[in-house]
Amino acid sequence: MTAPGRRSSTFTRLLRHGFTDPSAAERLLDGVELSPMRNDPVLLEALGATADPDLALHGLVRLLEVQPGPLAQRELLDTVIAAKPLRDRLLGVLGASAALADHLARHPKDWQALVTYEPRDLHPGVAEFERGLAEAADPVSLRVAYRRCLLSIAARDVCGTTDVAETAAELADLATATLRAALAIARAAAPDDAASCRLAVIAMGKCGGHELNYVSDVDVIFVGEAVEGADEGKALRSATKLASHMMRICSETTVEGSIWPVDANLRPEGRNGPLVRTLSSHLAYYQRWAKTWEFQALLKARPVAGDIELGEEYVTALEPLVWKAAERENFVADVQKMRRRVVENIPVAEVDRELKLGPGGLRDVEFAVQLLQLVHGRADASLRSGTTLDALQALAAGGYVGRADAVQLDSAYRFLRSMEHRIQLYRLRRTHLVPNDEADQRRIGRSLGLRTDPVAELNREWKRHGSVVRRLHEKLFYRPLLDAVAQLAPGEARLSPEAARERMVALGYADPASALRHLEALASGVTRKAAIQRTLLPVLLGWFADSADPDAGLLNFRKVSDALGKTPWYLRLLRDEGAAAENLARVLSAGRLAPDLLMRAPEAVALLGDGDGGGLVPRSHAHLEQEILAAVGRAAGAVQAVTAARGVRRRELFRTAAADIVGSYGTETQPAEADQGALVDRVGGAISDLTAATLAGTLRAVVREGWGEELPTRFAIIGMGRFGGHELGYGSDADVLFVHEPREGVEEREAADAANKVVSEMRRLLQIPSADPPLLIDADLRPEGKSGPLVRSLKSYEAYYRRWSLVWESQALLRAEVVAGDKDLGRRFIELIAPLRYPAEGLGDDAVREIRRLKARMESERMPRGADPKLHTKLGPGGLSDVEWTVQLLQLEHGWAEPGLRTTRTREALAAACAAGLISGEDAATLDEAWVLATRVRNAVMLVRGRAGDTFPSHGRELAAVGRYLGYGPGRVGDMLDAYRRTGRRARGVVEELFYGA
Predict the structure, then answer these.
(1) Strand partners, 433
(2) Among residues 586, 374, 330, 584, which one has the least CA distance to residue 477?
(3) Which of 120, 196, 951, 977 is the most exposed place for a label (fewest CB within 10 A)?
(4) 230 vs 237, 238, 300, 329, CA distance in Å?
(5) Rounded Cα–Cα distance for residues 675 and 327 (Å)
């Protein structure tokens, strides 16, 4: 008897053997069922070796309790003690699976299925499982026989007799035998239907790939044909009845539960398509309508039940189409998009526990392997295995995947699949989530041989293997391209030139030969630079492939690398700064403008990093002006000063363009900017501030060179149009007015000459051919247009506007804002024009009619010949002109009474008009959406083509690049154009009502 307060020796031994509730275990061991072997050390050792000793002991006691009598109990106990194989198998299953323990409690004699231990029992196939299911004549008996077979698979699994791949293969073979048995039951129930048709069952997914889980949907496709002399329509109806009945036999819940769902949704047209099709119907669908993912799914197609000959005909007929899938446009992008969509659909609360679908999960390995199979399987039949690990091994043997990478992925995949098996085995439920409960994690860890600290070790190994998969799954596709050209150590199998070319074509490269030459130039050799490039390029190639023009991305990267190759910080920045490499890849492959700006001063790459160099955040106007004026002050003359100012402008244009591209594309860690209006405002504000600062610096340089510190006349620059509205685009000229006022004692003529010389010299210096883009100054909005003087004094403006001003000039002055020069003079100019742009009591009817007449004339006369009006961003329906003239009419009519309308910015004025009740919220939103979209398209055209344009490009790649910038994935150019026309049409309806009064 144990003394009070002291634990028994049995209690201590139970703790040592891994029991978590020794008190309960002690009571069970003291019970009548285990009395014959209560103190047998063999039993405790065997229980302690299981995944969950408490669960195993409880299951054993339950099994003894339900034995039909004392003799049966004694037989079970004697076998457990005397036969180590049976003891390990039975207790192993009871300690890993509560569901199989429940089965044994319902069917007490089924433990005897674990007694046999012969060579043929160690690796059963379909034939052995068919024998095990042979007596099943109805759904209930089929479930019982299925669980009995499953017992033996689980026993071999938990005891380590089979590895995870062999277990998955056995589960697939058992599924095959079960489908055959279920179809036999269905045929027996409807002999007339069975006699009139041929029906083949094609396994897909993991069953087809011979790598099934314990509990998984069994994916199938059905193929039906009429027997000779039978009506095809009637035969298909019969085949559909048989197929439906077979699915119900496996899927429906009975007193013995269900087996697993049979899922036929991978068939043509999915749930909307017929359950059974003829072979010719299948073939017609795949030839004409199938999507890329459907060919990917066919990689695992395997006939398993019914008319096997018909099933083989199906696989043979479709196989050529599978291996042509990689030739489809946007093939790689489609596969990768499908993978991203899977990840995006995981609930946020589950993504960190998702073993199959999450980042670094099983699906990452499977997608990567299938992608490579589809690209290279056409030319190399050795890659055509439906089993992931076999295919991975074949890819490594052929040099399509690096051997070291393949070994790491194989190990990670086996570990993750083993975790998945153990999680599902416990309750025989379909799940891929790692449980939160510590007891569950402890059982899983122990079942995988982690005994010291099972929970901590399990989580550590899981995270380690997941990290390996995340790191390798995309690199897997690109790394061998480098090995093919880098001329590294001999002996390693590597891609042949033809295989490398195939892979580049699949990635979307139009000129694979040139692309491979670029890779060779970047990655060959044994230098540290080449080694870092070999680390960077696998990831960069993926980002280039995600663009509309991978060739340009790689070529531009080579140019930048050649220019900065000897700069120590360049490759270090790309390697060590998290965002720099991805940002650079996006910028280099998004079009011509940003790379051209970068090539003129490649050191601007530093802006793309995460560090403190300013990054991609636009500089404020004050900061820019301070920097440019400081550079001008240090310069020896006006030419050098303006060159410095233009250099700052080039750098900041690159910063703005890069930020715009990255914000529009998004990155792996930061999704694309959802607020398109914010992107437009950011670009417009940044370029307008930069232009103003550049003009201020140029003005300072010209004045200093010609007159010293002070000009004989006060001088101000007034921004007009998009410049005054803070809405400049990449290709916009600077619309301005020049105003001056002679200083005291200075003759009017002298002052005017000085002002004109300043303007002339500023325009000349800002357009001198150089590595920096020119800044064009446009003063055509001045009084009298091109016929009038370039510069006027404030008094001259006052006299002109008092006597001659036209309504279009009042409209143009709505955008006037001081941007550089004498602030006091500029302020007085703004005060002078206030009554013109915000006339008291608004516009008269004649003025309104004149504005409408001018608008209609502009639309008819200025539309370029041959252009599609519906796609013209400036003059087309719902374009910039429509929205801006509508908003400006509201400003001219109501600005005198509504202070909010007194702004130079289109979107601000539109919002103010809505707030004042002059336009409905719905109409305001429609106009705003159209204006933002048209502005984005203009910016995109300039970024992509490197020159301004008001219409969508006609060249396919350029049009696709505009689509990517606007958020449309590969192959969705048509959707983009339709959306633009739709948006313009809606906005034009609002314009007809508000502007024309229709």
Answers:
(1) 354
(2) 374
(3) 120
(4) 12, 11, 32, 42
(5) 36
Contacts of 266 (CB under 8 A, 6+ apart): 204, 205, 219, 220, 221, 294, 297
Phi, psi of 985 (to 5 degrees): -65, -45
Q: What is the largest CA-CA distance in the chain?
A: 129
Q: Is the dihedral of CA 171, 176, 180, 185 positive or negative?
A: positive
- Residue type, position 668, single letter: E
- Joined together, the tokens standing for residue 159 give 């005891």
Place of tokens 């995988």: 448
Mean pLDDT computed over every residue of the chain:
91
Return the pLDDT at 480: 72
In contact, 95 and 439? CB cutoff 8 Å:
no
Strand 734-742 to 713-719 pairing: antiparallel
Q: How many CB atoms lie within 10 A of CB 830?
A: 16
Q: Which residue type does 442 have?
A: R
Q: 811 by DSSP, 3-state: which?
A: helix
The letter for the amino acid at 163 is D
Residue 553: HSE in the Cβ half-sphere, 13 Å Cα cutoff: 29
Look up tokens 């003359």; give the residue. Answer: 637
Give me the mean pLDDT over the 263-288 stretch.
96
Which of the four pLDDT bands, split at 50, 70 and 90, describes residue 121? low
**Which phi and psi (to 5°) does residue 817 adopt?**
-150, 140
What's the pLDDT tens digit per position in 302-326? 999 999 999 999 999 999 999 988 8
* Distances in whole angstroms, Cα of residue 87 to Cα of each of 112, 158, 824: 11, 12, 98
114: Cβ–Cβ under 8 A, 6 or more apart, which residues?
86, 89, 90, 93, 151, 152, 155
Tokens 């900061």 found at: 623
- Distance, in Å, from the CA atom of 78 to the CA atom of 67, rounded to the nearest integer, reads 14
SS3 call for 223 = strand
402: helix, coil or strand? coil
Task: Reduce the DSSP state of residue 821 to 3 states and report it.
Answer: strand
Helices 921-945 and 973-994: angle between axes, nearest 10 degrees? 140
Distance CA 96, CA 778 (A): 80
> What sign for the dihedral angle of Cα 439, 440, 444, 447?
positive
Assign 788 to helix, strand or coil. coil
pLDDT in tens, 16-25: 889 999 999 9
Q: 117 falls in which pLDDT band (50, 70, 90)?
A: low
